[in-house]
Amino acid sequence: MIFDMDGTLFETDTLLVGVHERIFQTLRDEKLYLEPTPPVEKLLGCLGMLLHDIWNQVMPDSTLAARERADELMLQYELEGLEAGEGSLYPHVAQTLRELHDRGIKLFVASNGLEHYVKGVAEHKGITSLFDGLYSAGEYETATKIDLVRRLLTDHDIESAWMIGDRSSDVEAGKENGLQVVGCAYAVYGRKEELAGADALISDFRELLELGGVEQT
After folding, report:
1. Which residue has the higher pLDDT, 188 or 76?
2. Do 1 and 105 meet the contact criterion of CB atoms below 8 Å apart?
3. What is the pTM (predicted TM-score) of this model?
4. Which positions ≥6 away from 138 have C-beta within 8 Å?
5. Hey, which CATH number is domain 2-11+88-210, 3.30.420.40, 3.40.50.1000, 2.60.40.10, 3.40.50.300?
6. What are phi and psi of 204, to 5 degrees?
7. pLDDT value at 45 more than 90
8. pLDDT at 104
9. 134 has which bridge partners?
10. Closest CA to 22 of 10, 7, 40
Protein backbone atom coordinates (compact mmCIF):
# COMPACT_ATOMS: atom_id res chain seq x y z
CA MET A 1 0.00 0.00 0.00
CA ILE A 2 1.34 3.40 -1.03
CA PHE A 3 0.03 6.38 0.94
CA ASP A 4 0.00 10.07 0.30
CA MET A 5 0.92 12.03 3.46
CA ASP A 6 -1.00 15.34 3.70
CA GLY A 7 -4.75 14.87 3.77
CA THR A 8 -4.39 11.08 3.89
CA LEU A 9 -2.31 10.14 6.94
CA PHE A 10 -1.67 13.59 8.41
CA GLU A 11 -4.39 16.13 9.21
CA THR A 12 -2.24 18.96 7.91
CA ASP A 13 -4.30 21.93 9.04
CA THR A 14 -3.59 20.97 12.67
CA LEU A 15 0.00 22.06 11.97
CA LEU A 16 -0.27 24.40 9.00
CA VAL A 17 -2.65 27.07 10.31
CA GLY A 18 -0.03 28.38 12.74
CA VAL A 19 2.81 27.86 10.24
CA HIS A 20 0.95 29.87 7.57
CA GLU A 21 0.61 32.94 9.82
CA ARG A 22 4.28 32.77 10.86
CA ILE A 23 5.47 32.52 7.24
CA PHE A 24 3.69 35.67 6.14
CA GLN A 25 4.62 37.61 9.28
CA THR A 26 8.28 36.82 8.62
CA LEU A 27 7.97 37.74 4.92
CA ARG A 28 6.50 41.10 5.97
CA ASP A 29 9.20 41.65 8.60
CA GLU A 30 11.83 40.97 5.93
CA LYS A 31 10.02 43.28 3.43
CA LEU A 32 9.68 40.42 0.93
CA TYR A 33 5.87 40.37 0.78
CA LEU A 34 3.84 43.35 1.96
CA GLU A 35 0.38 42.29 0.81
CA PRO A 36 -2.22 41.04 3.34
CA THR A 37 -1.81 37.42 4.43
CA PRO A 38 -3.72 35.18 1.98
CA PRO A 39 -6.45 33.05 3.58
CA VAL A 40 -5.03 29.81 5.00
CA GLU A 41 -7.78 27.97 3.09
CA LYS A 42 -5.96 28.92 -0.11
CA LEU A 43 -2.82 27.15 1.11
CA LEU A 44 -4.75 24.13 2.36
CA GLY A 45 -6.49 23.86 -1.01
CA CYS A 46 -3.08 23.49 -2.68
CA LEU A 47 -1.89 20.58 -0.57
CA GLY A 48 -0.67 17.77 -2.79
CA MET A 49 0.97 20.14 -5.25
CA LEU A 50 4.70 20.73 -5.56
CA LEU A 51 5.89 23.73 -3.49
CA HIS A 52 6.68 25.76 -6.60
CA ASP A 53 3.08 25.42 -7.74
CA ILE A 54 1.69 26.09 -4.26
CA TRP A 55 3.29 29.54 -3.94
CA ASN A 56 2.29 30.46 -7.50
CA GLN A 57 -1.30 29.81 -6.42
CA VAL A 58 -1.15 31.33 -2.94
CA MET A 59 0.77 34.52 -3.80
CA PRO A 60 0.91 34.83 -7.60
CA ASP A 61 1.98 38.48 -7.43
CA SER A 62 5.09 37.74 -5.33
CA THR A 63 8.74 37.85 -6.34
CA LEU A 64 10.88 34.76 -6.85
CA ALA A 65 12.84 35.80 -3.74
CA ALA A 66 9.64 35.79 -1.67
CA ARG A 67 8.61 32.36 -2.93
CA GLU A 68 12.05 30.88 -2.30
CA ARG A 69 12.09 32.34 1.22
CA ALA A 70 8.58 30.96 1.81
CA ASP A 71 9.93 27.49 0.91
CA GLU A 72 12.62 27.80 3.58
CA LEU A 73 10.26 29.20 6.20
CA MET A 74 7.60 26.57 5.61
CA LEU A 75 10.02 23.72 6.26
CA GLN A 76 11.59 25.48 9.27
CA TYR A 77 8.28 26.29 10.93
CA GLU A 78 6.75 22.89 10.14
CA LEU A 79 9.68 21.08 11.74
CA GLU A 80 9.58 23.41 14.76
CA GLY A 81 5.86 22.74 15.13
CA LEU A 82 6.35 18.98 14.91
CA GLU A 83 9.15 19.18 17.50
CA ALA A 84 6.71 21.02 19.77
CA GLY A 85 4.12 18.24 19.39
CA GLU A 86 1.81 20.11 17.02
CA GLY A 87 -0.14 18.36 14.29
CA SER A 88 -2.19 15.17 14.34
CA LEU A 89 -2.64 12.03 12.32
CA TYR A 90 -6.21 11.37 11.20
CA PRO A 91 -8.24 9.20 13.58
CA HIS A 92 -7.27 5.50 13.61
CA VAL A 93 -4.29 5.98 11.26
CA ALA A 94 -1.56 4.74 13.61
CA GLN A 95 -3.52 1.69 14.79
CA THR A 96 -4.62 0.72 11.28
CA LEU A 97 -1.11 1.08 9.83
CA ARG A 98 0.19 -1.09 12.65
CA GLU A 99 -2.38 -3.78 11.92
CA LEU A 100 -1.65 -3.73 8.19
CA HIS A 101 2.08 -3.95 8.93
CA ASP A 102 1.51 -6.85 11.33
CA ARG A 103 -0.34 -8.69 8.54
CA GLY A 104 2.80 -8.51 6.43
CA ILE A 105 1.61 -5.81 4.03
CA LYS A 106 4.43 -3.58 2.79
CA LEU A 107 3.64 0.09 3.43
CA PHE A 108 5.10 3.14 1.69
CA VAL A 109 4.61 6.89 1.53
CA ALA A 110 4.73 8.84 -1.76
CA SER A 111 4.37 12.58 -1.15
CA ASN A 112 4.98 15.73 -3.16
CA GLY A 113 6.35 17.33 0.03
CA LEU A 114 9.90 18.05 1.11
CA GLU A 115 12.04 15.16 2.37
CA HIS A 116 12.64 16.44 5.91
CA TYR A 117 8.97 17.33 6.35
CA VAL A 118 7.66 13.93 5.21
CA LYS A 119 10.19 12.06 7.32
CA GLY A 120 9.64 14.48 10.20
CA VAL A 121 5.90 13.81 10.32
CA ALA A 122 6.49 10.04 10.33
CA GLU A 123 9.18 10.31 13.01
CA HIS A 124 7.37 12.64 15.38
CA LYS A 125 4.10 10.72 15.06
CA GLY A 126 5.85 7.41 15.78
CA ILE A 127 5.05 5.59 12.51
CA THR A 128 8.42 5.53 10.68
CA SER A 129 9.16 1.90 11.55
CA LEU A 130 5.91 0.75 9.90
CA PHE A 131 7.07 1.79 6.41
CA ASP A 132 9.38 0.11 3.94
CA GLY A 133 10.06 3.46 2.29
CA LEU A 134 9.22 7.16 2.64
CA TYR A 135 9.37 8.71 -0.83
CA SER A 136 9.10 12.45 -1.42
CA ALA A 137 9.39 14.72 -4.42
CA GLY A 138 11.82 16.78 -2.36
CA GLU A 139 14.25 13.87 -2.03
CA TYR A 140 13.94 12.37 -5.50
CA GLU A 141 13.35 15.65 -7.39
CA THR A 142 10.50 14.20 -9.41
CA ALA A 143 8.36 16.48 -11.57
CA THR A 144 5.10 14.63 -10.88
CA LYS A 145 3.72 12.11 -8.42
CA ILE A 146 3.38 9.70 -11.34
CA ASP A 147 7.17 9.73 -11.65
CA LEU A 148 7.67 9.39 -7.90
CA VAL A 149 5.41 6.34 -7.63
CA ARG A 150 7.05 4.77 -10.69
CA ARG A 151 10.45 5.19 -9.00
CA LEU A 152 9.13 3.56 -5.81
CA LEU A 153 7.66 0.61 -7.70
CA THR A 154 10.89 0.06 -9.61
CA ASP A 155 13.12 0.36 -6.55
CA HIS A 156 11.15 -2.28 -4.65
CA ASP A 157 10.20 -4.49 -7.60
CA ILE A 158 6.49 -4.10 -6.87
CA GLU A 159 3.98 -5.37 -9.41
CA SER A 160 0.70 -4.96 -7.52
CA ALA A 161 -0.30 -2.31 -4.99
CA TRP A 162 -2.98 0.07 -3.76
CA MET A 163 -2.42 3.83 -4.07
CA ILE A 164 -4.22 5.66 -1.26
CA GLY A 165 -4.72 9.42 -1.33
CA ASP A 166 -7.06 12.40 -1.32
CA ARG A 167 -6.18 14.40 -4.44
CA SER A 168 -6.41 13.98 -8.21
CA SER A 169 -2.61 13.67 -8.32
CA ASP A 170 -2.91 10.49 -6.24
CA VAL A 171 -5.56 9.04 -8.55
CA GLU A 172 -3.42 9.88 -11.59
CA ALA A 173 -0.26 8.47 -10.01
CA GLY A 174 -2.03 5.20 -9.26
CA LYS A 175 -3.80 4.82 -12.59
CA GLU A 176 -0.79 5.78 -14.72
CA ASN A 177 1.23 3.11 -12.91
CA GLY A 178 -1.45 0.42 -13.23
CA LEU A 179 -2.42 0.42 -9.54
CA GLN A 180 -5.75 0.15 -7.75
CA VAL A 181 -6.67 3.50 -6.17
CA VAL A 182 -8.40 4.22 -2.86
CA GLY A 183 -9.74 7.76 -2.45
CA CYS A 184 -9.86 9.26 1.05
CA ALA A 185 -13.25 10.95 1.15
CA TYR A 186 -12.72 12.09 4.77
CA ALA A 187 -10.13 14.69 3.71
CA VAL A 188 -11.37 18.26 3.37
CA TYR A 189 -8.59 19.85 1.33
CA GLY A 190 -9.59 18.70 -2.14
CA ARG A 191 -12.86 18.58 -4.03
CA LYS A 192 -14.95 15.43 -4.18
CA GLU A 193 -14.66 15.30 -7.99
CA GLU A 194 -10.88 14.92 -7.63
CA LEU A 195 -11.47 11.34 -6.53
CA ALA A 196 -13.49 10.41 -9.62
CA GLY A 197 -11.77 7.37 -11.10
CA ALA A 198 -10.79 5.85 -7.75
CA ASP A 199 -11.61 2.15 -7.42
CA ALA A 200 -12.88 2.59 -3.86
CA LEU A 201 -13.67 5.44 -1.48
CA ILE A 202 -13.23 5.36 2.28
CA SER A 203 -14.73 7.72 4.86
CA ASP A 204 -12.86 6.14 7.79
CA PHE A 205 -9.23 4.98 7.70
CA ARG A 206 -10.15 1.64 9.30
CA GLU A 207 -12.03 0.69 6.13
CA LEU A 208 -8.66 -0.18 4.60
CA LEU A 209 -8.71 -3.33 6.71
CA GLU A 210 -11.76 -4.55 4.82
CA LEU A 211 -10.57 -4.01 1.26
CA GLY A 212 -10.01 -6.94 -1.06
CA GLY A 213 -6.91 -8.88 -0.15
CA VAL A 214 -6.68 -7.53 3.38
CA GLU A 215 -9.98 -8.64 4.88
CA GLN A 216 -10.12 -8.50 8.64
CA THR A 217 -10.15 -11.93 10.27
Report:
1. 76
2. yes
3. 0.91
4. 113, 114, 115, 116, 117, 118
5. 3.40.50.1000
6. -150, 130
7. no
8. 96
9. 109
10. 40
